[in-house]
Amino acid sequence: MGSRRAFLLYSFLFASILCAPAARAQIIEFESGGLKYKTLTRGGVTVMFAPLSTHIRDYAILQVAVSNGSPVSWSVRPEDFRFERTDGQGMQALPAGKVVGTLLEKAGRGDVIKLISAYEAALFSNAHMHSTNGYEVRRQNFMAESPGNKLRAAAAASAIAFATTKLAPGQSTDGAVFYANQGKPLGTGRLILNAAGETFVFPVETDPHPHPHSP
User: Fold this and answer.
1) Do 43 and 66 contact (CB within 8 A), yes or no?
2) At 77, phi and psi to the nearest 5?
3) DSSP code per residue over 50-99
4) By the 8 A CB rule, do 50 and 65 touch?
5) What is the three-class DSSP state of 5?
6) N or C, which end of the chain is more exposed by having fewer CB within 10 Å?
7) Could you report the per-residue pLDDT of 138-175, keeping only the tens digit for each?
8) Using N-to-C axis directions, what is the helix angle for 149-160 and 109-125, rounded to 10°?
């Protein structure tokens, strides 16, 4: 009887090991508009990101989208996106207000337009990204509040930056997340997001074809 119980226990453990990878959330990768996206769903919440090829001033930039398919409302902040290098050094994304203020103070109008063009091209070519409260909604709201031509660049820059957002069930958002990295790509490491009671971890690889950035 003892040997039979041991066999049944072994069989159960073996079956559990085989089934574990299927039950574990897996990262899905795809390309769109020349960008390489990674997406992961945990607890009904889906996170998607891709490094933008355009670098403005001192920033490395990620395009990020978060969709809440859970039955609970959750808040997500840009500061929640942490990049960790292979040597263990970490870097938090900057708050939206700080990024926008720096862009308007130090970046030229051409830099801002270049960023807007790159972001919109990536957003509109991605069939998997449909935000209910993302860049397009924010842009329209900012434009309505800023009718003057001089304020339109500022409004668009404000709309692009990923802002702290509370997502009700079924809602989604997108935006650009900025890292102060001397205008260089983030390099090899991992992107970590603690949100919705879950931890999302994505590997990040060095771009083998670095793109020029604005001076």
Assistant:
1) no
2) -115, 155
3) EE-S---TTEEEEEEEEEE-SSS-EEE-GGGEEEEETTS-EEEPPPHHHH
4) no
5) helix
6) N
7) 877 776 665 555 556 666 777 888 989 999 999 999 99
8) 50
Contact 78, 96 (CB under 8 A): yes
Length, in residues, of the chain: 215
Token duo for residue 28: 């899905």
Q: Which two tokens stand for residue 129?
A: 């990204």
Please name the residue that has the structure tokens 């001192």: 58
Return the number of other C-beta atoms located less than 10 Å from residue 129's C-beta. Answer: 21
In what side-by-side order are the strands of the sheet with 35-42?
Answer: 28-32, 35-42, 45-51, 59-68, 172-180
Mean pLDDT for the stretch of residues 100-108: 72
Q: By CB neighbour count within 10 A (0-12 exposed, 13-18 middle, 19+ buried), where does 189 fall?
A: buried
